[in-house]
């Protein structure tokens, strides 16, 4: 992976995601670099949701980091959603069903039924990325976002909550209302190569199979 930390480097044979001064986890670095190298993001803005670290990274269409922030994610670990969960009442969803599904999603800025801007990630499972919702004091969502412990940030029904300022100044600017991009939600338990078909890049800029993670 040594070559992959040359963030922002580019040549005729390889391109890498530019994380700037951020220090992402190995999986986030792997998927972001693969997305840029393979052009899987189709030159659209894209987001890496690192569930293990409970963090979100937003990139422009050229793979340059626009911003990063902690995120609140589904309470339960797991990379799949229960069939039909998107149409169920929240009061019927059990704690073990509150997962943020892993995968590659084509996302767009829309408005919720309440009129708030949200980045719709997956309609079928009703998963969106949006401003943190702190209307239930006992959930302590703002305090959880400020925690340095990733496990503290597992609380939602599956949606991805980010700080208000980050959503408005980074996410909304990257995904103009009505525009589309890609959201890569990294897995909790599966391997990223299984989920995305991703690969590492060797020192010569050539793809190579990703090692187990």
Would you kindly provide a brief summary of this structure?
The protein has helices at residues 26-38, 141-146, 164-174, 192-196, and strands spanning 46-50, 55-59, 65-70, 73-74, 103-111, 117-122, 127-131, 154-156, 160-162, 180-185, 199-201, 207-209. The protein has 213 residues and is of the alpha/beta class.
The mean pLDDT is 89
How many beta-strand segments? 12
First-to-last CA distance: 13 Å
CATH topology: L,D-transpeptidase catalytic domain-like
CATH architecture: Beta Barrel
Number of domains: 1
Q: Estimate what percentage of residues fall within beta strands.
A: 25-35%
| Tally of alpha and pi helices | 4
Shape: globular
User: What's the CATH C level?
Assistant: Mainly Beta
Structural class: alpha/beta
What is the string of SSEs from the N terminus onward? HEEEEEEEHEEHEHEE
Please give the largest β-sheet.
Answer: 8 strands, mixed
Unreliable sequence segments: 1-14
Explain what this protein looks like in three dimensions.
With 213 residues, the chain is an alpha/beta fold. The chain has one domain (2-193): L,D-transpeptidase catalytic domain-like. It is 16% helix and 26% strand. It contains four helices and twelve strands. It has helices at 26-38, 141-146, 164-174, 192-196, and strands at 46-50, 55-59, 65-70, 73-74, 103-111, 117-122, 127-131, 154-156, 160-162, 180-185, 199-201, 207-209. An eight-stranded mixed β-sheet has the order 3-2-1-10-5-6-7-9, with helices on both faces. A hairpin with a 4-residue loop joins strand 6 (117-122) and strand 7 (127-131). The chain is globular and about 50 Å long. It starts with 25 loop residues before the first helix and ends with a strand. 40% of the residues are buried.
């Amino acid at each position: 992976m040594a070559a992959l930390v040359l963030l922002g480097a580019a040549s005729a044979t390889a391109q890498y995601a530019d994380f700037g001064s951020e220090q992402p986890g190995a999986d986030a670095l792997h998927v972001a670099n693969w997305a840029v190298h393979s052009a899987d993001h189709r030159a659209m803005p894209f987001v890496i949701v690192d569930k293990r670290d409970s963090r979100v990274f937003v990139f422009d269409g050229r793979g340059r980091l626009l911003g990063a922030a902690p995120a609140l994610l589904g309470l339960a670990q797991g990379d799949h959603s229960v069939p039909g969960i998107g149409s169920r009442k929240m009061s019927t969803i059990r704690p073990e069903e509150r997962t943020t599904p892993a995968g590659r999603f084509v996302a767009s800025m829309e408005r919720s039924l309440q009129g708030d801007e949200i980045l719709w990630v997956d309609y079928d499972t009703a998963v969106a990325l949006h401003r943190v919702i702190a209307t239930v004091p006992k959930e302590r969502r703002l305090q959880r976002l400020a925690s340095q412990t990733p496990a503290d940030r597992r609380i939602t029904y599956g949606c991805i909550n980010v700080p208000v300022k980050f959503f408005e100044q980074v996410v909304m600017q990257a995904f103009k209302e009505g525009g589309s991009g890609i959201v890569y939600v990294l897995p909790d338990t599966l391997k990223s190569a299984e989920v995305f078909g991703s690969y590492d890049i060797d020192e010569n800029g050539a793809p190579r199979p990703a090692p187990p993670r």
